[in-house]
Amino acid sequence: MSDRGTRHYRNLVSFLFLIIISCLPVSVRSAYLSDPHWHPATATWYGEPDGDGSDGGACGYGSLVDVRPMRARVGAVSPVLFKSGVGCGACYKVKCLDSRICSRRAVTIIVTDECPGGYCAFGRTHFDLSGAAFGRMAVAGEGSQLRNRGELSVVFRRTPCKYPGKNVAFHVNEGSTEYWLSLLVEFEGGDGDIGSMHIRQVNSPNWLEMKHLWGANWCIIGGPLHGPFSVKLTSLSTQRSLSAREVIPRNWSPRATYTSRLNFSP
């Protein structure tokens, strides 16, 4: 899309958002207009009506999306938020706007998947939520009615990711060798998203840059690589860094997950 087209689209979205806001009660309208952190978007739902949503997703979290703390909080987002996978792990609060059926509370979701095309066409800011997360935006007892609405106008904002009792973990992907090492990052708190990732071999002062592979997966080609490995993550949003010293042991193995003693603070 050209710069002119992008500006036109943003102006149109802003105009429509103001129309939606103008239909809200004065007290609610004032709250949203005075808070610059809330932004307009749309939302749909997928999967079972009261289900957890996807059974994996484009971020590569696999079965983690079916268990706590991700369970029923998963969300697929349009490309503008998915960011080719770099947006994986980011957390958002999403709130619908119709006071007749929507609760005043927001639902917190974790980006675990991408929803390309259709509602999630390039340029749109859209959330495709699990049925459970979508229903939680409704007032008590109206979850089914809210899901029957289909697409909703919503507002959203970034929120820190919180994983009580969890620290950042690194899953060594299948196929990894001493010449090609691929890691999936799990449970990164705080900003949630990752802007860069580095690895350091034992007895080496040098941090080696890993390449973003897909979703929440990163890799490095070289070698032979010798563990134990320290791993450094840098947040995409705030550029904060976290270094997990020798988190991956010397005798590491593919398909194993190694948990650090650290996490980003909310």
Provide a concise account of the structure shown:
Helix content is 16%, strand content 32%. By secondary structure, it is α+β, with helices and mostly antiparallel strands. Strands 1-5-2-4-3-6 form a six-stranded mixed β-barrel.
Protein traits:
single chain; 266 residues; alpha+beta; six-stranded mixed barrel; five-stranded antiparallel beta sheet; 5 helices; 15 strands; 32% strand; disordered N terminus
What's the SSE blueprint?
Layout: H1 3-22, H2 26-33, E1 39-46, E2 74-77, H3 79-82, E3 91-96, E4 107-114, E5 126-130, H4 131-135, H5 143-147, E6 152-158, E7 169-172, E8 180-186, E9 194-200, E10 208-209, E11 211-214, E12 217-221, E13 229-235, E14 241-248, E15 257-259
Parallel strand pairs: 1-5, 2-4
Antiparallel strand pairs: 1-6, 2-5, 3-4, 3-6, 7-8, 7-15, 8-12, 9-10, 9-13, 11-12, 13-14
Oligomer: single chain
The rounded distance between the terminal residues' Cα atoms is 35 Å
Overall helicity: 10-25%
**Secondary-structure element order, N to C:** HHEEHEEEHHEEEEEEEEEE
Q: Uncertain spans, ≥5 residues at pLDDT below 50?
A: 1-34
Strand content: 25-35%
* Main sheet: strands, sense, barrel: 6 strands, mixed, barrel
Gyration radius, in Å: 20 Å
| Mean of all residue-level pLDDT scores | 85
Count up the helices.
Answer: 5
